[in-house]
Design a protein that fits this description.
heterodimer; A: alpha/beta; Rossmann fold; five-stranded parallel beta sheet; 5 strands; globular; B: alpha+beta; Heat Shock Protein 90; five-stranded mixed beta sheet; two-stranded antiparallel sheet; about 55% helix; elongated
Chain lengths: ~140, ~220
């Protein structure tokens, strides 16, 4: 089954070429040019991973990461940035980023990270479902 | 080194670091696009090896994108080079319109992040002062940074160089709705050190939404 990815970056040309290459690798890609647009998209659709640019006009990557995690905690977010510092990486991971990758990124490395993110998300969703089932059984006295 | 000189050195170094970080970030974005184009070219070669037809139009489009990004990177590097040379002379004749245009380019990405578009209002004749170009750019950044840091609404801020009877000035226009109380903290010792080094004065109009940097002729 292909990975469903949301790619968020304010550089339109980057989005176009990156999504073309990802689609050629059988990924299902949706793009957004702002964090705000990404937030609207995740309200309607679910993704295995979100690739999020760290620095964008309006809401930056860190704020976007917080907002997405608040709305959909199970979503796996890989931050993509032009400037990777250990400090920022640690901060992002504490907030809930799954991974952190520096631009220019190696697509094969990114694809591996997306696969891991998808596996991680499936585990979380499985646990959530298990919890829901347990609650239902408890409710009916089983 | 006196306390003021030390503060000036620290402020100047921080400013250079901030601008370098912004410019290198921009270059990284360009490299990322070129990198993806190179990757796409590799993908196309692989497809061609498997016998798939490759459209020459697609390849031309790739070449155009790479050329455009090279042009973009070249402009960014030229801008950074020009900025770096502003430290060559600490006192020189400075065309305020040229400085305003330079900072519009230099601060563009940083201010765009805050929804701000910076523009220059070109005066009818050159407005020149003998001062440090570097410290003036630093002071303009301090003012714009302070005026925009806590806001993210879309707006345009204009830089208007002007001649006066007793000197020259740059007005920063479009700062309406600034919180009146925040003016109590401005200018900070950092801006005071820059003003002293430039021999300039700073005034602001809360109601008019303006900050004015003036260079007055000694009478």
């Amino acid at each position: 089954m292909s990975e469903k990815v949301l790619l968020v970056d304010d550089e339109k040309e980057f989005l176009e070429i990156m999504s073309e290459r990802m689609k050629a690798r059988d990924m299902e890609v949706t793009t957004a040019t702002s964090a705000q647009q990404a937030l609207e998209i995740i309200e309607k659709e679910s993704f295995d991973a979100i690739i999020l640019d760290f620095q964008m006009p309006g809401m930056d990557g860190m704020d976007a990461l917080k907002a997405i995690k608040a709305k959909k905690p199970e979503l796996q977010i890989i931050l993509l940035t032009g400037y990777a510092t250990v400090e920022k990486g640690v901060e992002a991971m504490k907030i809930g980023a799954t991974d952190f990758i520096e631009k220019p990124a190696d697509l094969e490395v990114l694809a591996e990270k997306i696969k891991s993110a998808k596996a991680e998300k499936m585990l979380i969703v499985e646990k959530q479902t298990e919890g829901k089932v347990k609650n239902i059984l408890k409710k009916y006295g089983f | 080194m006196s306390g003021e000189e030390s503060l000036l050195a620290k402020t100047g170094l921080q400013f250079f670091g901030r601008m370098s970080a912004s410019v290198t970030h921009e270059i990284k974005n360009v490299l990322a696009i070129i990198n993806e184009n190179a990757g796409l070219l590799e993908d196309i070669v692989l497809m061609a090896e498997k016998g798939l037809d490759i459209s020459s139009e697609r390849l031309q489009r790739l070449a155009r994108t790479v050329n455009a990004q090279v042009g973009r990177a070249d402009a960014v590097v030229k801008m950074m080079n020009h900025f770096s040379h502003s430290i060559d002379h600490f006192v020189e004749p400075v065309d305020l319109t040229k400085v305003a245009e330079d900072v519009c380019d230099l601060f563009d990405r940083l201010l765009q992040m805050r929804g701000v578009t910076l523009e220059t209002i070109t005066p009818p004749a050159p407005v020149v002062v003998t001062a440090s170009r570097y410290y003036l750019q630093n002071l303009l950044w301090c003012c714009l940074n302070w005026a925009t840091i806590a806001r993210s609404d879309k707006r345009t801020i204009s830089l208007a160089p002007e001649k006066m009877d007793n000197g020259v000035r740059v007005r920063l226009v479009g700062l309406a709705d600034l919180d009146k109380d925040t003016f109590d903290l401005f200018p900070s010792p950092q801006e005071d050190a820059l003003l002293a080094a430039l021999g300039a004065r700073l005034d602001f109009s809360v109601a008019g939404g303006e900050i004015i940097i003036s260079f007055l002729r000694e009478s």
